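anyone seen this seq b4? input:
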Amino acid sequence: MMQRLLQFTLDLFEPERVEPAKTAIAPATPKLPADPSTTAVSGTKEAVAPVKQAPPAIENIASQSLGVPVLPTQTLQQALAPATFRHPAATRESLLDGILVAYEFRRGKRRTIGFSVGADGLTVSAPKWAPLYDIDKAVLEKSGWIIKKLHETRKRHQRLESARIEWKDGCTLPFLGEQVIVVLDPRHAFGGVGAELKSSESQTLPGVAHLTLHVGLPHSASADQIRDAVQAWLMRQAKRIFTERLNHFTPTLGVQWRKLSLSSAGTRWGSASADGSIRLNWRLIHFKQSVIDYVVVHELSHLRVMDHSPRFWDTVRAVVPDYAELRGQLKDEGVPRW
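predicted toks r here
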C-alpha cells in the first residue's frame, strides 16, 4: 500500500516524457539548419557535410524576406570608390588612384590612343585595331595626368558656375578685366546705342574708378532683355577694340589682315585663314587687354606660319614675350556663365 502511494506521488512531480521525434528523410538539397555545424537526426547530433551550392548572401536573404529588390553585388573597390568622375556618354570605366573614372570611348581613323578632358569628363579615342587590354593599360599609365586634369576642370567649372551672371539691375560682369555694374536707366536710349559706360570715383575706395554700364531699359525689363542689350553693347566694343589691336600689331608682324568676324564658339578663341580672314571670339572682351593682345598676335602670326611649329611660337614670342603666362590666364580664368 505504501509503495503504491509513493509511486503515485512521484508520478505527480516527474516531468512529462516526450517521445523522440521521428526524422523525415532528408531532401536532395538540404536546407540551411539553424546551427550550420550540426543537425538533429533521431535525437542525436551529427556533423553536416559541406553543401556544394553556396548559400545566398545575408543581405540578399534579408532583402528577399522583406520583399525588397535585390541589388547586384558590388566589388569592394566599387564600394570604396564610387564613380567620382562620370562622362554623360560613358561606355567604359577604370579605377585610377582609388577613383572610379567612367569615360567616353571612341574608335576612329587614328594611329595612337588619345586622351582629352573637357567639361563633361574624360574622352579616350583609339584606333579601330587597338585591343581593349592595350587601351586599359594606356589609361592606367596616364592615370596621374587624367586625375589631375579632371580635378582642375571640375574646380574651374565650379568657379565659373559661382560667377554665373544673374541678369538684373545691379548685376556685375567683367569688361577688359574690370568689374562693371549694370544699371537700368530708362530715361534715354544713349544716342541709339542702347547703353553707355560711365566711370566715377568709388565712394568707399577714394581714388578707385567705379564703372557702371547704363542700359536704356525700364526697371521692369526681363532678364533676357537685359542680357541681350548688354551683349549687343559688348559685341560692338569687341569689334572696335579687336580692329584697333589688329591694326596695331600688323606692321610689327609684316602681315595684312583683310576681314574680321566675331564668333561665339564655345572652346575656340580665334582662327585665321590664308586669305587674311580673322575670326575672334567676342567673349574675349571680358579679359584684360594684354590677354586680348596675345590672341590677336597669335592669329596674325598664323598669316606667316600656318601651323603650331616651333617657328610659329618663336614668331609669337618675338611680339609677346610673356605669351605663355597670358595663355595660362586665358585658360584658367575663363569667362562668366551667361
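The first strand starts at residue 38 and ends at 41. The CA atoms of residues 81 and 99 lie 5 Å apart. kinda curious what u guys think
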